[in-house]
């Protein structure tokens, strides 16, 4: 009996598993060479000729043209890692790919996929327990460790040349925006400027608003400024209903015009009486109002974004008002200086020297667009790991030390696991060693020698022993200052395990019609074929053909 339509395709059993595993491994392999301080960069070129040069795992995978649904599951691992922690995206994907590789060998040995999945889950839980117990406690006052964590996250990226300077800026920024509710990185605005060197990047304790003064006669600079934030329109009030007025005499028209001017003058006087030096308006400012504001020596900017008004309120301690009649001195924010400055050829308003600023701006400089973009990505990773460290208070050594220790302890744990799951736990331990092995390979070292040296040190109880990619020696990573948050490792193991298990449990791939539920890799509803459908699968049903443009990116 024919159940599926003639156009449908179906792959089942070991063929389906093999196809999905191959796709997942291909994604992991594409980013593997970017791992570590000596990782290489990828150049991604789209059909329009736009170029992205990066070694940031999640950026590479987002930009790659991947069609295969199983491959997209691995891409989701990197996106989850980025959202949760901000760093460790490449590690998470590489571990997921290696878990699939180890599972393939077990499947060839006639071990059922669900048995492997169960073993992987048990190993992942045990791995997280081991990391929790071995983690090093860090206090929020330990600035040196926080700087080391920020530096580690930038190592191997385009920002490496100025990582010490940038790490200090990142730590200052995160500590500045920390409050009783936690750390919201939306309060750290990263502004990129093409021109100058990376070393010239700076932290502005306040807000940079991408606006200019509305009138050339307004002052360029205001010291110890009182700032008003108004999210309405600085214009003549209009009636809420349509009204028609018949004028019989020119003097009556003049009276109307005079009345409008008087209204605007009163609005400006309200600001002046309240002691306002600077006003940011969410909507437009009438030309006549601009003239009166300039006369009063008030700096004004119009059409400020809601996000800018919120940032200004948080930084200066002011309050956004919707009606100028309600404005009081208590609503005004305060800043040491407000000035219009040229930055990268654009005029912007700098609101800085704010006492206890809870909203700050990182100005990132670089010689070209590509350099600036890569530095921005490195800084965003660093912001994420510093926040994770402050929230969790625990760190781990880098250089492949945690993975080597986990592999060692998981092999011991496997002996206590009954049944065939024991083999899956051992496979999980072997898979984790892909991290130190890859670090060695990318550094041009002998991976076997490096791994043997690491195992030997950890066997002797040295948990912090990791691989120095520069010298090739096994050293104490904690003393060297190569540390990363506990959450980077636990999240990577969790995400990689879940993705690998999900792929392993698939034994039937059917090119379905329009699926009712959401599916991997089909974020938009454009009426085209779904990711699992005939169009989305491409040639993937027969193997790797469905990877689309991935071959070019790899």
Alpha carbon gap, first and last residue = 42 Å
Mean pLDDT across all amino acids: 84
Main sheet makeup: 7 strands, mixed
Shape: elongated
Query: How many domains comprise the coordinates?
Result: 3
Beta content: 15-25%
Structural classification: alpha+beta
What does this structure look like?
With 554 residues, the chain is an alpha+beta fold. It folds into three domains: 243 residues, GroEL-like equatorial domain (GROEL, domain 1, Orthogonal Bundle), CATH 1.10.560; 99 residues, TCP-1-like chaperonin intermediate domain (GROEL, domain 2); 138 residues, GroEL (3-Layer(bba) Sandwich), CATH 3.50.7. Helix content is 47%, strand content 16%. The longest helix has 24 residues. It is elongated. The C terminus is likely disordered.
Element layout with pairings:
Elements: E1 10-12, H1 14-32, E2 42-45, E3 51-54, H2 57-63, H3 69-84, H4 89-108, H5 113-134, E4 136-137, H6 143-154, H7 163-177, E5 188-194, E6 202-204, E7 207-209, E8 221-230, H8 250-273, E9 278-281, H9 287-295, E10 299-301, H10 306-316, E11 320-321, E12 333-343, E13 346-352, E14 360-366, H11 369-392, E15 394-397, H12 401-414, H13 421-432, H14 434-442, H15 447-459, E16 465-467, E17 474-476, H16 477-480, E18 483-485, H17 486-504, E19 508-510, H18 534-537, H19 550-553
Helix pairs in contact: 1-3, 1-4, 2-3, 3-4, 3-17, 4-13, 4-17, 5-12, 5-13, 5-17, 6-7, 6-11, 7-11, 8-9, 12-13, 12-15, 14-15
């Amino acid at each position: 009996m024919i159940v599926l339509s003639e156009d449908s395709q179906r792959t089942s059993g070991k063929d389906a598993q093999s196809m999905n595993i191959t796709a997942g491994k291909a994604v992991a392999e594409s980013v593997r060479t970017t791992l570590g301080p000596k990782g290489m960069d990828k150049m991604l070129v789209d059909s329009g000729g736009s170029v992205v040069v990066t070694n940031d795992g999640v950026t590479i995978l987002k930009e790659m043209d991947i069609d295969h649904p199983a491959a997209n599951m691995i891409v989701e691992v990197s996106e989850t890692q980025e959202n949760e922690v901000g760093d460790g995206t490449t590690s998470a994907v590489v571990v997921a790919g290696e878990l699939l590789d180890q599972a393939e060998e077990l499947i060839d040995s006639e071990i059922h996929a669900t048995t492997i999945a169960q073993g992987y889950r048990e190993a992942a839980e045990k791995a997280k327990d081991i990391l929790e117990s071995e983690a090093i406690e860090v206090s929020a006052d330990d600035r040196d460790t926080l700087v080391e964590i920020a530096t580690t996250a930038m190592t191997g990226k385009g920002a490496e040349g100025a990582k010490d300077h940038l790490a200090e800026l990142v730590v200052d920024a995160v500590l500045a925006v920390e409050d009783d509710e936690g750390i919201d990185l939306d309060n750290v605005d990263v502004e990129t400027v093409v021109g100058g060197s990376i070393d010239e990047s700076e932290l502005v304790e306040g807000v940079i608003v991408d606006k200019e003064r509305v009138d050339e006669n307004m002052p360029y600079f205001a010291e110890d400024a009182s700032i008003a934030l108004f999210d309405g329109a600085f214009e003549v009030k209009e009636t809420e209903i349509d009204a028609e007025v018949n004028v019989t005499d020119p003097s009556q028209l003049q009276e109307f015009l005079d009345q409008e001017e008087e209204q605007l003058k009163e609005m400006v006087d309200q600001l002046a009486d309240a002691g306002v030096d600077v006003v940011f308006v969410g909507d437009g400012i009438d030309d006549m109002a601009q003239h009166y504001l300039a006369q009063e020596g008030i700096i004004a900017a119009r059409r400020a974004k809601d996000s800018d008004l919120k940032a200004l309120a948080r930084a200066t301690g002011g309050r956004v008002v919707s009606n100028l009649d309600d404005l009081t001195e208590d609503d005004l924010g305060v800043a040491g200086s407000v000035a219009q400055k040229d930055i990268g050829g654009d005029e912007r308003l700098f609101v800085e020297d704010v006492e206890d600023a809870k909203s700050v701006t990182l100005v990132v400089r670089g010689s070209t667009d590509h350099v600036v973009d890569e530095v921005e990505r490195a800084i965003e990773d660093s912001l994420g790991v510093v926040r994770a460290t402050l929230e969790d208070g625990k760190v781990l050594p880098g250089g492949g030390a945690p993975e080597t220790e986990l592999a060692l302890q998981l092999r011991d744990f496997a002996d206590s696991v009954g049944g065939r799951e024991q083999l899956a736990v051992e496979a999980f331990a072997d898979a984790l060693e892909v991290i130190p092995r890859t670090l060695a390979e990318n550094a041009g070292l002998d991976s076997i020698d490096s791994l043997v040296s690491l195992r030997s040190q950890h066997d002797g109880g040295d948990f912090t022993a990791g691989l120095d990619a520069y010298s090739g020696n096994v050293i104490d990573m904690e003393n060297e200052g190569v540390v990363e948050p506990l959450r980077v490792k636990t999240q990577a193991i969790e995400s990689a395990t879940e993705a690998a298990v999900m792929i392993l449990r698939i034994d039937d791939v059917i090119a379905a019609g329009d699926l009712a539920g959401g599916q991997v890799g089909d974020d938009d509803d454009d009426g085209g074929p779904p990711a699992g459908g005939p169009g989305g699968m491409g040639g993937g049903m027969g193997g790797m053909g469905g990877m689309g443009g991935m071959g070019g990116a790899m």
